Amino acid sequence: MSEQAPPTALVRRARRINRELAEVYPYAHPELDFENPFQLLIATVLSAQTTDLRVNQTTPALFAKYPTPEAMAAADPSDLEQILRPTGFFRAKAKSVLGLSAALRDDFGGEVPGRLEDLVKLPGVGRKTANVVLGNAFGVPGLTVDTHFGRLSRRFGWTTSEDPEKVEQDVARLFPKAEWTMLSHRVIFHGRRMCHSRNPACGVCPIAHLCPAVGTGEMDPEKAKKLLKYEKGGFPGQRLKPPPDYPGPPAPPLAAS
């Protein structure tokens, strides 16, 4: 039995939300600092169960000491664990980083592959991580279904699923493939800054008029304004080296945090 196309009204509203988020966050970008596909891959794996800020504060020392898959695969595990300690779950993360670096060295000539089916074979790499790398290091469109993207997709009525892969499938049907990567950035930006899990800032949300879940959070504009995070609240972002068009201050390095 073939799957029915999503209702036209849902598609139109979803695409309007995307257009309006693009006006709110014209500077939306990956919030992990990276200079090449290997750095982005490692940083994304390290971002599990911690903030991008904490990863960005940790990776400068990591990449200064182990700049390539070959160097990282040969790292002393205890030294690696010590560097990764600030990111939490550092033993498991050190094991993943060593394993995927060895796999890159042994199976891919020391290069990060540019195909989803190859990336998900690497230790510690799932579809979310693979789509982050493909979209931001290789220009291959992908949807990054993290906790923010999943939460907002359900609030917007784009999906009812809690399963990341099903969320990805449902949302993919609503948007042109070329929009997927930037859509991910915009939705995640909005989730981190306004549409929080426990108390979204509905009273100052610029897309509240399009949101089926409006009223879930604080509706009083003055109270809602106090809930804004990162540059929307006048605070530093998550990157130590943000893009030139980022309107907020950069994050502090680890020693100053």
From TrEMBL:
UniProt keyword list: 4Fe-4S, DNA damage, DNA repair, DNA-binding, Endonuclease, Glycosidase, Hydrolase, Iron, Iron-sulfur, Lyase, Metal-binding, Nuclease
InterPro entries: DNA_glycosylase, Endonuclease-III-like_CS2, Endonuclease3_FeS-loop_motif, Endouclease-III_FeS-bd_BS, HhH-GPD_domain, HhH_base_excis_C, HhH_motif, Nth
Region of interest (Disordered), residue spans: 230-257
Residues that coordinate or bind [4Fe-4S] cluster: C195, C202, C205, C211
Broad enzyme group: lyase
Residues in the signal sequence: none
Catalytic activity field: 2'-deoxyribonucleotide-(2'-deoxyribose 5'-phosphate)-2'-deoxyribonucleotide-DNA = a 3'-end 2'-deoxyribonucleotide-(2,3-dehydro-2,3-deoxyribose 5'-phosphate)-DNA + a 5'-end 5'-phospho-2'-deoxyribonucleoside-DNA + H(+)
Textual note on the cofactor: Binds 1 [4Fe-4S] cluster.
Names of required cofactors: [4Fe-4S] cluster
Record's compositionally biased regions (Pro residues): 241-257
PROSITE patterns: ENDONUCLEASE_III_1, ENDONUCLEASE_III_2
GO MF annotation list: class I DNA-(apurinic or apyrimidinic site) endonuclease activity
UniProt-listed SUPFAM superfamilies: DNA-glycosylase
Enzyme Commission number, as recorded: 4.2.99.18
Residues covered by the HhH-GPD domain: 46-193
Family according to the record: Belongs to the Nth/MutY family.
Physiological role: DNA repair enzyme that has both DNA N-glycosylase activity and AP-lyase activity. The DNA N-glycosylase activity releases various damaged pyrimidines from DNA by cleaving the N-glycosidic bond, leaving an AP (apurinic/apyrimidinic) site. The AP-lyase activity cleaves the phosphodiester bond 3' to the AP site by a beta-elimination, leaving a 3'-terminal unsaturated sugar and a product with a terminal 5'-phosphate.
Protein name (database record): Endonuclease III
The organism of origin for this protein: Streptomyces polygonati
Recorded name of the encoding gene: nth
